[in-house]
Amino acid sequence: MIEVLPESHGNILAVKGLGTLTDLDYQNVLIPQLDSLIKEYGKAKCLFVMDEAFQGWELEAAWDDATFGLRHRNDFEKIAVVGGPRWVEWCAKLSAHLMSGEIKTFSTGDLEKAWEWITH
Question: How far is it, in rounded angstroms, from Cα 75 to Cα 86?
C-alpha cells in the first residue's frame, strides 16, 4: 500500500510504502499524484519512506514503477529513498544512471536528513 504523507507540499510528494506495493497503488495513488505535480511544476521531488514491514513490489507494480520512471526520467529533480531492505538501495543506485535528477538513499533513522536534502 502507498500512503501519501501530509508533509507533501509544492512540488514534493512524500509517500510511505507499507507491506507490498500493488498495481492499484500505482494506478490510483502514485502515478496520478506525480503526473499532477509534473504538470504543475515541470519537475517533481519525491520522498519515499519504507516502513519496517515493506516487502517490495508485486510484478505489475514493479513494471509500473519502471515504465513511469523511464517515461519521466527528465521530470524528477530529486528522489529520496528512506529505509527498506539493502536491495532497494542497489535498485536506487542503478536507477540513478537512467534518470537526469538526483537519487539518494537514507537509512531508516535519517528521515530528517532526507527531508533536509529534498527541500534544498
Answer: 26
